Amino acid sequence: QVQLVESGGGSVQTGGSLRLSCAASGLTGSTYCMGWFRHAPGKEREGVAAVDSDGNTIYTDSVKGRFTISRDNAKNVQYLQMNSLKPEDTGMYYCAADWVPLTLGLRPPAYSHWGQGTQVTVSS
After folding, report:
1. Which mean pLDDT values do the consecutive 10-residue runs of the chain (124 residues) have?
2. Which of 1, 74, 78, 95 is 20 to 30 A from 55, alpha carbon to alpha carbon?
3. Burial of 87 (0-12, 13-18, 19+ CB in 10 A)
């Protein structure tokens, strides 16, 4: 049974930083793609960043230069370092994993394994 568990969310002021973690279990090997998504009230779920097993990454334009995604294949953990946070970054952040090419890494329908989410709130 695949399980993804996020941690590290919280409340910060504009300009602050948070580091999200996602621990994966039940996935065979490490060749799967992992991604971070966020869902704000009244908006669709949005792909934020994704990383493949080789460490290649993609980001949505709004977080480039501020967020960094990484993963530790030995520990089956991925991270999202979020700096210079803005109020528009507020939302529920979800971890996802599946055997998909990185080119599909920001598309929610590509993933079948999801975590329960962790809330990120950025106040002005």
Report:
1. 96 98 90 95 96 96 98 95 98 97 96 97 96
2. 1
3. exposed
How many Å apart are CA 7 and CA 44, to the nearest integer?
22
DSSP reduced 3-state for 102: helix
Q: What is the pLDDT of residue 55?
A: 95
Contacts of 74 (CB under 8 A, 6+ apart): none
Q: Which two tokens stand for residue 123?
A: 């106040």
Angle CA 101–66–20, to nearest 5: 70
Which pLDDT score, from 0 to 100, does residue 68 have? 98
Distances in whole angstroms, Cα of residue 35 to Cα of each of 12, 13, 94: 22, 25, 8
Asked if 58 contacts 105 with a C-beta cutoff of 8 angstroms, the reply is yes
Q: Which residues contact 19 (CB under 8 A, 6 or more apart)?
A: 8, 79, 80, 81, 82
Three-point CA angle 62, 58, 77, nearest 5°: 110
Asked if 96 contacts 109 with a C-beta cutoff of 8 angstroms, the reply is no
